[in-house]
Structures are given as C-alpha cells and as structure tokens.
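Q: What would this chain look like folded?
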Amino acid sequence: MGGRWERGSSMAWFAAIAAFLILPLFLLVIDGARILYAHARLQQATDAACQALAEASIEEQVNQFKQTGQVKPKITLKSTNAAFAVFNAMTRNDPVLKPNPGHFTSAMTTLGLQYAPGMRPRCVAEAWVEVIFLGGIHNWPEGVVKIQASSMPAARSVRR
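A: My prediction, written as structure tokens:
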C-alpha cells in the first residue's frame, strides 16, 4: 500500500491536470462561445439587410418594368441605404460586434452587396472579432478572428 511519502500525490496530479488540461479547455470554451455568438449575430444582421435590400429592389424593379417593359437587376442607392440601415441598426449595440474605440483589434464589420445569377441579391458580411484568450495561444494576428456570413433572400414579388 501507499507509504507515508505518497500522501498528497493525488493533489499534485490534480493540480498538474487542472493547469495543463482543464484551464485551457475552459478558456477555449469562453472564446469559442464568443466566436459562435458573433457569427450568429452577424448572420442575423446579414439576413435582415439582404431582406431589406430585396424588398426595396422589388419596388424599384416593378416601377422600372412599368416604364420600360423590361427588368434589369440593379442595386440602387435607395435599396443600398435600406440594407445598410438595417445592418447598422442590428450591429451597432452588439457587445461583441461593436467597435472598441482606440483599440486596433476592435470588431470591424463590413457588408457587401451584389447580384447573383437569377436576379437575386446576395449579401456578404465579415467581421474581425477580438478573442480574449486564444490570441496568445494560436498566434492569431493581434488576437482577432475573421468570421463571415452570406445571405440570399427568398423575397419574391407577389402579384395582386
């Protein structure tokens, strides 16, 4: 059986396992949850912006068809402003996507708009999200992770 000198060895093993296994996993869970949250919020904002773009574009394309008899898909200033207004409103007060003034690794969020084949708008957004613990471990530049989201709305004009 264990002698007098083996007392406390289980405490030393637990301390070693906690320091090299449990603590890094805990930090990974914190940053992983932060990245997943940021991706979900970015996807929601992109979907809403693309839906706003499609709804504004439909109205303009109906007017264009009434005047010219043909439809040419295009992104106009009115539809772009509608999309950016919705996107900015959804990302402005977000705790993870919100820019951190005076800090280089703030979340930089961008939205790109274009038309895909089939006359449907396509919206692509990306953000650089600051990670708290993983930046030093994985040598990510300045402790940020790039996340992307894309969306194509299912908005269709309804004939009444």
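Residues 39 and 98 are 13 Å apart (CA to CA).
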